[in-house]
Amino acid sequence: MAARSEWRILLALWLMVFSASSQVVIMAPILPRIGATLGIGELEQGSLITAYAVMLSVMALVAGPVSDRLGRRLILLVGSGAMTGALLLHGVAYSFAALLAVRALAGAAGGLLSGAAVSYVGDYFPYERRGWANGWVMSGVAFGQIVGIPAGTLLAGLADFRWPFLAFGLTMALATLLIWRYVPQPPGVRSELPLSLRNVLRRYYELLRRPTTSRSPLVYFLMFFSIGLFLIYLPTWLEHTQGFRTEEMALLFLIGGLANVVAGPLAGRLSDRIGRKPLIVGATLGLAVLMAGAPLLMQSDLTIYTLFALAMALVGMRMSPLQSLLTALVPGARRGSLMSLSIALGQLGIGISGVAAGWLYKEYGYLSNALLGALALVLMALVVGYGLPEPDLQASVGEG
């Protein structure tokens, strides 16, 4: 019975992660279509990414302490319900201003959800099983690339760019129902600190003052900053230089998603055995090398598909070990605050990369995006390798 309850929880969180991540990633392949439909250029397209990321960052800073005090279940329910509404509002976004507004609303809802799933796994599962659990939950991101992104890309090409968001709104509504039905509040992990602006600021100050926990947000910032630089204008570059069509773009994300969905759970389970840091550092450095060389090597369909699949596999290899590592750095009553702070800085990285990538792409070409992204990954590997401890795999520090 316990095993069945665990799988129901993982399914609900998986569907939430699938829906939330798909509605973000779909922006990259359909960004040129959005630009053509609304008559906006590269800089305005990048601002759609930035608006979402900035609102997510702000709301995540609020949601973390609230989830520590009131519980993860409440935040998961409110966040998934709010995301459902925001995604359905995309159906009436017929101007750049309207789309910018609904992307900001979706970002606010995403801020509520940002660290909730990872924190919940940290609360519910012991440390020696968190790599496995996080691997399955985060495979929702990869499944989005396999099914959600290709289907959404084709749907945007056949109908309208708004339709993928409406479809993900329906899957998020189902996730909300599953969370309400099957995801309980884990006992014994709530903070006793009263909710107030002063207490929230003090909690974040304490996290930033400690060397170990202050490095976690930096790791997330560098990770998402690099991915934004690499991914946001990759479809645009492939269209302009390789003549990629909608169907080929959908196939690209399908292949990348397959690589990610295989690598993620395997890496999570392996990290439960050998430790988190070797996989995180190795995958990050490997991705840096690939990212730097991709614009020079992606000269045929075979190399494009192969290198993108390898890149997505490396992304999957580091994600669940990294999340499992970070959830062990603080006790459960502070876990939501740390994860929300980290993800807020990560989304700030995405927001900055959206603006920077658009300017770099326009002024210097896609190679400049990839090289700066690779440099950020090297810095991330150094911070993880020398700045974060590797907890004992037999220790379960989630309660306290």
UniProtKB/TrEMBL annotation:
Main subcellular location of this protein, as a coarse class:
membrane
Record Pfam families: MFS_1 (PF07690)
- Membrane protein topology class: Multi-pass membrane protein
Q: Which UniProt keywords apply?
A: Cell membrane, Membrane, Transmembrane, Transmembrane helix
Which InterPro entries does the record cross-reference, listed alphabetically? MFS, MFS_dom, MFS_Efflux_Transporters, MFS_trans_sf, Sugar_transporter_CS
The protein's superkingdom reads Bacteria
Q: Cite the Major facilitator superfamily (MFS) profile domain residue spans from the record.
A: 9-392
Q: Where in the cell is it found?
A: Cell membrane
One term under GO cellular component: plasma membrane
What is the protein's name according to its record?
A: Major facilitator superfamily MFS_1
